Amino acid sequence: MASSRSLLVDCHTHIYPPSYMDLMRKRTEIPRVHTAPDGQEKVILLKEEAHGDGSNSQGRPVGPQYWDRAEKIKFMDTHGIDVSIVSLANPWLDFLTPDEAVKAARDLNLDIQQYCSTYPSEASTSSSQFSPQTSNRLFAFGSLPLVPGVETSKVLEAIEQIKSLSHVRGVVMGTRGVGKGLDDEAMEPIWKALADSGLVVFVHPHYGVEGAFGEQDNGHVLALALGFPFETTIAIARLILYGVLDRYPTLRLLLAHSAGALPALSSRLSSCVVHDPTVKDRLQHDFRYYLGQMWYDAVTYGPEELALTERVVSRADKYEGKDEHLAYVDRGVFPGVDRIMFGTDHPFFPPLDGEGTRWKSVDENLDAIAGVAGWSGTERSKVMGRNAVELFGIEL
Amino acid sequence: MASSRSLLVDCHTHIYPPSYMDLMRKRTEIPRVHTAPDGQEKVILLKEEAHGDGSNSQGRPVGPQYWDRAEKIKFMDTHGIDVSIVSLANPWLDFLTPDEAVKAARDLNLDIQQYCSTYPSEASTSSSQFSPQTSNRLFAFGSLPLVPGVETSKVLEAIEQIKSLSHVRGVVMGTRGVGKGLDDEAMEPIWKALADSGLVVFVHPHYGVEGAFGEQDNGHVLALALGFPFETTIAIARLILYGVLDRYPTLRLLLAHSAGALPALSSRLSSCVVHDPTVKDRLQHDFRYYLGQMWYDAVTYGPEELALTERVVSRADKYEGKDEHLAYVDRGVFPGVDRIMFGTDHPFFPPLDGEGTRWKSVDENLDAIAGVAGWSGTERSKVMGRNAVELFGIEL
């Protein structure tokens, strides 16, 4: 690798540890892992995947890239990724009973700590120039037993466990909380503990939206390209409207897929709030202010979209309080870049035809960072890795 | 008015003609108009409005601003709007039987033609400097009887009727087509007729998304700020994936609320398409190309969001065909401004406290146009009115 390149940290990269694969293989309903007639194991996560035709039928191929650490490192080396912060992929523990989820979270957190902290298990094969401590190429988000009916104390115990694990620096979380979403009184002690912990909370979608995609067969496109970002957008809008960021301003939320459609609809949300008698006096600030309190991955696939994320974060402090403010004017200052971090969504979106060794989906996101108009080299290097080093406290 | 200001044309402004109000008053189910205990007539359009408390209960106040032309002109004069292109507000004719819808469309198209063409009915009170022909301050989108079970020939007859009406320059359309959405074989002859007609098709949401907004009372905020744009985004993504813009490249679609989340998710859509075996070979161009084939209102409420709409249209021609292209680099050239047009969404989003005479929601959208970084005065004047003059063939 060229020594002049930027440190590259992947904040959005998933695994299914072997124990999790076993949980999914045992299931007969979605989500599940099954062996297709051709002998290929496939994971069915979405209802849309339970039918279909030809190569697209019955889910997506699932193989060692989901659980084999050597495959993750190989992917990282191919793309020049120095450090990955891995997280359990959706649907996490959502399908388990409370007791099962509590046990599974505890075991998976130990698994993922071992996955990260014992690398390399043999003589170093690391090709990173930035990691003299080669044990520091892998970090993780832990899992919480967030299922309906779980005792709050069990969730708080999981947070305590995670705080004790050297390589687990955050938690991954879906949008349902303990069943009613992230705008639920039952989540309050959990938000408080997470805010106090300093852990990064990676909010990620799984369920999409219901009954909106019609009768034509569009494969996974609409569920993944629209359902996922819509789910995240709704969940975070609800969280903000419930006052969670007013009460816990130190909460560190990292939003998957650059928060979906939240940046593009944040001024519309602001306007709808001030025009609605039910909501207009509820929040301490203009809705747009809260976008500056959160972090975003750079998984947008295009530079114009990524630029929007940066601009809505950059303008956020103009909207402190509820006074009228002049529109933000772009003067070539980009404070929002401090809140955005490269991600790949590995091992999802592999090349369809296996062409080359680099993944198109990864290059799209690298090109997006390279293509944002106006950013300096320093700003791009923050997004590529320096921001993650700071946020997760990564020791290089 | 200052003579140096730009011509201002409002392409997104709604009416409920008296005959439509009567249809809504007769109904006992949503959508309906009823008289609240305080004597105020209210319209209930969304399920979220059928409950609620206090001033927010049982819908939104509906009054002469919905049907009285003098009120529309007064609103236009207050905000310096020279020309309005009015459209029937949602939910249009969706709740009628085919026979009822055919008759209602025919009558409403005559009503709206009269509404526009007979102004001023008495001595001119126009304050516009741009309309020596004062009969040309109002134009319209007509209505089509797009309901399940309607005969295609009846829809085509409505298109013929509209073509014969001097002040009706387009049609307003929801996202359900004749029941199954805009990606429906039954829509093909209708798309063909609309493409051949040169009429502008204003696509507007009404239904939002189902079951996603949780248990907290957030008034109308989530349904309007998120459900509406999500519905439009899904509808147009489905239309593109069905190949409608490949088959009818001359179709002139104008997308409400700047196409919702479509600009922000267009690169994600592109990436999901090329990674999906079901869809990857279906379209003639990269998904992003099609964004350059459509028109957008400027109803974004913020300059950064509006800039994104312009940028994704500006970059569209880079994505002709399916070759790899370098990321679009912003060089201060803004061809996308030709496709964006000012709108107000009047008479929705009135000031809550009646303060002042100008509407905050209108000023937010004017400020958005004024605040986009990089646009010249010429570019802003296109968005404010010149584009609409050209697209709708308005004679000044």
TrEMBL record, chains A, B:
GO annotation (BP), single: secondary metabolic process
Keyword Glycoprotein in annotation: no
GO cellular component: cytosol
Pfam families, per the entry: Amidohydro_2 (PF04909)
InterPro entries: ACMSD, Amidohydro-rel, Metal_Hydrolase
Chain ranges of the Amidohydrolase-related domain: 9-394
Lineage top rank: taxon: Eukaryota
Any GO molecular function: hydrolase activity
Keywords noted in UniProt: Decarboxylase, Lyase
PANTHER family: 2-AMINO-3-CARBOXYLMUCONATE-6-SEMIALDEHYDE DECARBOXYLASE (PTHR21240), ISO-OROTATE DECARBOXYLASE (EUROFUNG) (PTHR21240:SF28)
Family: Belongs to the metallo-dependent hydrolases superfamily.
Protein known as: Amidohydrolase-related domain-containing protein
Organism: Leucosporidium creatinivorum
Taxon lineage: Eukaryota, Fungi, Dikarya, Basidiomycota, Pucciniomycotina
